[in-house]
């Protein structure tokens, strides 16, 4: 067989040596190059898978967060609306109270003023009556003093005594 | 027992009437009793009551009549009768006075009576009625 190979120009020994060399090279490359590379590729593959898994988890968490955020926002909006509604109700109620209080105070002031005016009116009328009575009495007294002479006074005194005796 | 102003006045009048010559001693003794009983603050009320007590004890109305003109004897008698009738006393001792400012009529004042039948009195009552 070596003769046949040699016949086609191939040296059997050299071929064997090359095969051995190739085997050695293959083994060296296998242990020092292919295996670490494969290991590295496997690790990278794992990393990529983990990264994908993490990415999916993050995406899921993001989606959940968005849902929660929307729910919180909706709740916050509801609360804000409730606060505004309550504030409006309170303001309306206070407005009514303030208006009622102001009306009551105005009524009180009006009543008090009317009472004072009535009292003042009564006082003025009373005073006017008193003055008028004084004027009437003084005038009547003066008139009587001027018209009642001694004789009339005696007659009137006698009549007064008689009147009291009866 | 609490002694009233009426009791004090009546007792004083009784004592004074029974022994008029010892009036100053009776009065002094009376004041000592008031001081002892710590009732001197009642003195003004007792004095007011004396007039009534005297009227009760003597059954006489003591008073004063003021006329606008000088009263006649008849008028004085009538006034005395008026005082007896109104006060319900058996007797009346009324002194007379004249005040022309009354214009006409008279006024009678005793412990129980305060009668004003003068023109000025009537005018004052009219003034009261008008006001």
What's a quick, concise take on this entry?
With about 170 residues, chain A is an all-alpha fold. Helices cover about 95% and strands about 0% of the residues of chain A.
SS-based structural class of chain A? mainly alpha
- End-to-end gap of chain A: 196 Å
What is the average per-residue confidence, as pLDDT of chain B, rounded to a whole number?
90
Report the uncertain regions of chain B: none
Shape of chain A: rod-shaped
Helix content class of chain A: over 70%
Task: Determine the strand fraction of chain A and express it as a percent band.
Answer: under 5%
Mean pLDDT score of chain A = 90
- What integer value in Å does the Rg of chain A equal? 66 Å
Explain what this protein looks like in three dimensions.
The complex is a heterodimer of chains A (166) and B (131). Chain A has 166 residues and is mainly α. Helix content of chain A is 95%, strand content 0%. Chain A contains three helices and no strands. Chain A has helices at 2-7, 12-147, 150-165. The relative contact order of chain A is 0.02. With 131 residues, chain B is of the alpha+beta class. Chain B is built from five helices and four strands; from the N terminus they run H-H-H-E-H-E-E-E-H. Chain B has helices spanning 5-18, 23-36, 43-58, 73-87, 119-130; strands at 60-67, 91-98, 105-110, 114-118. Chain B has a four-stranded mixed beta sheet, sandwiched between helices. The longest helix of chain B is centred in the middle third of the chain and has 16 residues, at 43-58. The radius of gyration of chain B is 18 Å and the shape is elongated. Chains A and B meet through helix 2 and helix 3 of A and helix 4, strand 3, strand 4 and helix 5 of B.
Task: Walk me through the topology.
The complex is a heterodimer of chains A (166) and B (131).
Chain A (H helix, E strand, L loop, with lengths): L1 H6 L4 H136 L2 H16 L1
Chain B lengths: L4 H14 L4 H14 L6 H16 L1 E8 L5 H15 L3 E8 L6 E6 L3 E5 H12 L1
Parallel strand pairs in B: 1-2
Antiparallel strand pairs in B: 1-3, 3-4
Helix pairs in contact in B: 1-3
